Structure formats: structure tokens, C-alpha cells
Amino acid sequence: DIWFDKDEVEMSSSCWLSQRLETLEKCRAAIIFLSQNYFRCSVALLETKILLERLKSSEKSVKVFPVLFSPVEIPKDLSMLFEGAIDLTGAYLANMSLSEKSSIVIGNLSVEIDQYSLIRAPFHPAAPPSSEFTGEFKSKKLCKWSLEDVQEWLHHKGIREFYRQTFAEAMIDGFLLSSLTDEALSQYL
Fold first, then answer.
1. What InterPro entries is this protein classified in (predicted)?
2. pTM (two decimals)
């Protein structure tokens, strides 16, 4: 997993902090946008210390991708964590939009961060077929498939549960499956 919290919002749930810290402790990489607000936020500083401890214990435990979003003075005890930051504070970037700055970050990180994405992680074989799967979808025409048939087909193809669940939540049956476009898949699923 790659940890990126774009919305620094305290959740209404009482366990939001523990969920957040648990995710941080398990992630393989973290993208950190450094700004004045970042260093004023106690939770962000706690996260930074956790990442620093993970790095001290083993450099291979987590990879940090720092992005200097606005001019800040980085505390000396944290400087190791922010070496090699992508700098978005230069005068030549001052008039760029947020989209253009985001493009710079993506361009600089895309190749390196790709190593940490789940899609690149080693394939884990799907769980053994459920007894509820009968293979009946194979004898039906695609447009006649039910929601269950689509789920069984996705399972049969080795599609991960997250994506199967997305199809189930969108109530994709055979008719809808046959009319899906690449654009619809990327926009809605």
C-alpha cells in the first residue's frame, strides 16, 4: 500500500486515529506534502516520527516521497526523512496552477512509486472456488447473465475481490457488462 492522506480531516469515529496510524505502520510507501500547515499539525508530526522510526529500524521497511509544497524550515531531527524532496517552491513554479504542479509531482514519482503499488505486488492466487459457484454462466449468453453470473465469471478470471465488489455494488449484470466502455470503467468503477 501507498499511504496518502489528501484530506486532513478528523473523522467522526472515535477510532479514526488508530485506523490512520495502523495504515501508516503497514504501508510500503508514503507521499508527504510539506507545508507550514503540515508542521503545525500534531497528527502529521506523529506520523512523521513513526515513519522516521521505521526508516531507522530498516531502510527497506518504508519509502518516503517528500514533496516541498511551500517554503518551510525542516527540523534537523527530521531532515533525514525529507532528503531528495521534490521542490515546488521555486520562482519558476510560482504562476503554475495546482494541476500543473501535480503533474510535476506525478511525472517525477510515477516510475519510482510504481514499484510500491499493489498492482505490481506479487500475484496471490485467488481463493478456491466457492461451493456456490456452479459454472452455469458458461452456458448462458452474456446478455442473460445475472449479477451472480458476473461475479462468478470475475472470480473465474482471477479478478481480485475489491474489483468484484465494485461490480456488485454497481449492480453490473450481463447486459450492463456488455455495454461497459473503457471510459465508463475508469469513471464509475
1. SAM (IPR001660), SAM/pointed_sf (IPR013761), Toll_tir_struct_dom_sf (IPR035897)
2. 0.55
